[in-house]
Amino acid sequence: MGEGITLRVDAGADAGPFTPFWEATGFADAACLERPDYLQQLRLAGSIPRRGIRHVRIHSLLDLVYAPGLGGDAQGFDGSRLFVGIDALRERGLQPFFEVMGNPGGGFKDFNDARELRAWRRLVEDLARGLIRRYGSAEVRSWYFETWNEPDCENYWAQFSRDPGAFLAYYDATENGLHAADPALRLGGPGGMAHLSPTVRAFLAHCDRGLNRFTLQPVRCDFLSLHEKGAPPTSEEMDPDSIGILERERQYLAYLRQQHPRLAGLPLMNDECDPQVGWRDIHSWHATAFYAAWAAKTIGQHLRVFVDTGVNYPLLVNDNGFTGTWGQRTLCARLGPEPEMEPLGGLKSGPESPFSLVKKPIFNLMVLLSYLRGRRLPILGLGDPEADLGAIATAGEDGGVAMLLYNCTDRLRSSRRTRLCLKFRNLPASWMLCLHWRIAEGWGDPFRLWQILGPRQEREEASLRLLRDHQELAWLAEPHEIAIRRGRLDLPLDLPQPGVDLLLLIPDPGQAPEAPSKLSVERHISACGRPEALLHWRGGSERGLRSFVVESAGADGEWRRVNNPDLQCSAWIDLPQGPRRYRVRALDSWGRTSPPTEIVAWE
Predict the structure, then answer these.
(1) Per-residue pLDDT tens digits for 319-329
(2) Rounded CA gap, 480 and 589, in Å?
(3) The pLDDT of residue 537 is above 50
(4) With 90 as the cut, is the pLDDT of residue 415 above it?
(5) Which CATH class, in words, describes the domain spanning 5-13+373-506?
(6) What is the rounded distance in angstroms from the CA atom of residue 185 to the CA atom of residue 198?
(7) Phi then psi dihedrals of residue 215, to 5 deg
(8) Which of 268-289 are b and which e, b meaning 16 or more Cβ less than 10 Å from the residue's Cβ?
(9) Which of 31, 153, 212, 483 is the right S-S partner for 346, CB 3.0 to 4.6 Å?
(10) What is the DSSP string of 339-364?
(11) Do 337 and 353 meet the contact criterion of CB atoms below 8 Å apart?
(12) Sequence ranges of the domains in the chain
């Protein structure tokens, strides 16, 4: 293990304002908002406490729009199908990261055509006005609107990569239409795939020195987005290069400062910061602690390399809100046969395809990150901001101190343990509860169990129950109280690589946790062919929560706990045996319980 590393945390200090800038995920085409498996994935994402995921970046939302008479005086707009999808997001506590992308009825073919361009501008204005009428100005102003995804990639709209001028025309029409509805809406881009490609450079020059062809006024851009990833697309196992991502983003900033200094102060985001291009490619490490630890490291690197040096960096997105296999780049593993799909991603008519979702370690990373709230605390002893080992610490209004530690090299086939000594000073109480979770091999590791069971067993009820018993966050040690001497506490720790720990020191609030509310149940057919009950509720945001306790009662009327592992999220999936009643209560780490929720029935 080598010599130990000492990290010093002053709980009484203030390292400056702190805003979580990772609370987002990517998504597939908008038609997947109509798929039961994707809706369940969104339900699980929305169950992460403290809105650990809030923005969902969705492709081709305008494919859900009906716009008869495109380009004519009587051009219409029907967003009812789109609104159903956005309603589903918002009901789950999520917001769209709205890519202004899609082709209603296939009516657009050439953005250099003046008639089509005017039709697009009107379509965008009608869209924005429809969103504002339905959701209100304040809500829609809190969203991000972005250009067509990866305009320098032929896979999305081939004309843009061949003819950057067509993309600039599209942008002018989009910007004018959106801001005609509400000048306070935020629009940016270009979300380019290739590093400083000709399309990206043309866009930056247009935003700096160009005129909008509809207003003949300077072009407006509210934020800049890019896609920098750790390795090219291939089915081979390539080491993801996190340092390369940082270097290319530095080059992007340097290009802005040299060529377009007027744009250099705009908010900048990497909204597809992934270890490798190609979410469909099977790489088993997507299901392991490596992916979670690597993502935690990229967050820590961006915090120290960019945010701490004054770069306006509001969002860093892992593009993983799809459904897929263990080896695909997803938050959950989807068990069961793939459904039969329409060309644009919608389900073909027919019976529901059975499926079951199991959380991966990358999902649980988002839960751990949600504990980082309040003011940022300085950490002495970290060294190089690009290093494999790092930490983030915060102090919350509840008096608690949260510290996330990550240990991950870019090499897939590498492991070690690092000895740490954590020295806390100026802690606010004489006794504090210590909660300590870990993501590493053997801790919250359902894929390891799946390998033992074998793929033939994944659709067996007993195997599915076992996998879900291992999908939740795992305690490194049971929660326990620690004496604090004159505000000081020293904790030794061995941190595996790859691995992520979250350490929470929190004083006793002196009262029971808030009762969950709005308990509901949804039904679908599981991968093992039996009905599953997805229970979800609204829970408190207490960081000292040990677990939500989900209980069911059958014909005998006796209540029994059905979630074996402790649960921090406000959703649980059960395999009920016959008619049941359900209730949920909150259990804190001092042994106090809330009153149960109202009871819901399963017939």
Answers:
(1) 999 999 999 99
(2) 8
(3) yes
(4) no
(5) mainly beta
(6) 27
(7) -110, -15
(8) bbbbbbbbbbbbeeebebbbbb
(9) 31
(10) PPB-TTSPBPSSSPPP-EEEE-HHHH
(11) yes
(12) 5-13+373-506, 517-602
Gap between the Cα atoms of 491 and 433, Å rounded: 13
pTM of the model: 0.96
> Are 64 and 87 a contacting pair, CB within 8 Å?
no
List, as one string, the DSSP characters of 230-286: SS-S-SS-----HHHHHHHHHHHHHHHHHH-GGGTTS-EEES---SSS-TTS--GGG
Measured CA distances, 100 to 58, 68, 142, 176, 279 (Å): 9, 18, 16, 13, 22
Q: How crowded is residue 358: how many other Cβ atoms within 10 Å of its Cβ?
A: 23
What residue has token string 């290093």? Answer: 387
Alpha carbon separation from 391 to 118, 145, 372, 453, 481 (Å, rounded): 51, 32, 11, 35, 23
- The helix or strand, by DSSP H or E, that contains position 117, with its residue range, turns out to be helix 114-135
CB 320 within 8 A of CB 329: yes
Do 602 and 534 touch, CB atoms closer than 8 A?
no
Residue carrying structure tokens 């997803």: 330
Distance CA 333, CA 349 (A): 24
Tens digit of each residue's pLDDT (9 = 90 or more) over 256-297: 999 999 999 999 999 999 999 999 999 999 999 999 999 999
Tokens of 108: 């657009």
- What secondary structure, in 3-state letters, does 417-450 show? EEEEEEEEECCCCCEEEEEEEEEECCECCHHHHH
Q: Say if residues 320 and 366 touch (Cβ distance below 8 Å).
A: no
Q: In the block, which residue shows the tokens 């504002």?
A: 132
Residue 498: cis peptide before it, omega within 30 degrees of 0: yes
Strand 489-497 to strand 401-407: parallel, antiparallel, or no bridges (unpaired)?
A: unpaired
At 154 the pLDDT is: 86
CA 172/CA 182 separation, integer angstroms: 15
Query: Cα angle at 330 between 546 and 518, to 5 degrees?
Result: 45
Tens-digit pLDDT profile for residues 108-164: 999 999 999 999 999 999 999 999 999 999 999 999 999 999 999 988 899 999 999
What the block records as the tokens of 516 is 């969950």
Q: Among 143-147, 339-343, 345-349, 585-589, which is the least confidently predicted range?
A: 345-349
Residues 46/539, Cβ–Cβ less than 8 Å: no
Strand partners, 469: none
524 neighbors 355 (Cβ within 8 angstroms): yes
Euclidean distance between CA atoms 98 and 124, whole angstroms: 12
5-13+373-506 and 517-602, same CATH topology: yes
Helix/strand/coil for 108: coil
The token pair at 222 is 């509210």
Six-digit token string for 247: 């270097």
Give the pair of three-digit tokens for residue 563: 């979630």
**Residue 327 burial by Cβ neighbours in a 10 Å radius (0-12, 13-18, 19+):** middle
Contact yes or no for 547/513 (Cβ under 8 A): no
Of 16-20, 371-375, 506-510, the least confident:
16-20
Cβ pair 219, 212 in contact under 8 A: yes
